[in-house]
Here is the input.
Amino acid sequence: MDRDAADAYPRKLGEDYQMKLFSFWRSLATYRVRIALNLKGLKPEVVFVDLIKGEQRNPQFKAVNPQMVIPALVDGDGPVLFESLAIMEYLDEVHPHPPLLPTDPRARAFVRGIAQIVACDSHPLVVPRVRNYLTNELKLDEAGVLKWTSHWIGEALAPIERHLAHDGMTGRFCCGDQPTIADICLASQAAGAGYFQVDLAPYPTFSRVVDACMQIEAFAAAHPLKQPGAPASHQ
Ligand SMILES: N[C@@H](CCC(=O)N[C@@H](CS)C(=O)NCC(=O)O)C(=O)O
Here is the structure.
């Protein structure tokens, strides 16, 4: 069923992809999965779901992902994979090199903890359906919505900075000197801070690690502003 729904999306002549990623330039969760795919050297077919036009709510996409959010990844015969953290761990298990998690249990917990502050505590509060609810149901104006989004982004940046600077785990990247799922989530948090005009100056360790990530082609090429359909800048 999932594979059928995914196959309902038109495929260009001659394409024979095993993997199909439902994506949009602006999606921070999909940015995370794009980085993981790039790090693994995987090149799925990309299907665009325009979140600004509300295409995630089309019945055709709802048949792929009933939650009506991206990313969604179909690998082979499916079923569809959903939730960026689950997708990244799946990719890491199926394609173990290079690893996206350290082997040491404490280091793994640290990496997952940083990733979850971003993906489970902060990002869910700034996604389009939440912003739309604030605007349409609670009647917040643009300034009010920006106050909301920047507040919840900051509520993640401050503890992440504290963990990175003080827990003794951080090297060139969040945990040691290899990029992990935590760094992928950091990159998405930095892009979100750009969308919602959050100053990163108070978070020097966070910014240093993000800068190190962006020197890696797999991160840089996955950036929202590098995707088809993206504007030249956030402004
Ligand atoms: N927790 C999910 C978040 C998925 C999500 O909310 N994706 C956003 C784009 S980043 C979306 O598709 N939103 C559509 C909407 O809110 O209507 C994940 O990490 O994959």
Notes: The pocket of glutathione is lined by residues 27-29, 51, 56, 69-71, 83-84, 119, 124, 127-129 (CB under 6 Å). DSSP finds ten helices and four strands in the chain. The chain has a mean pLDDT of 93. The longest strand covers residues 19-23.
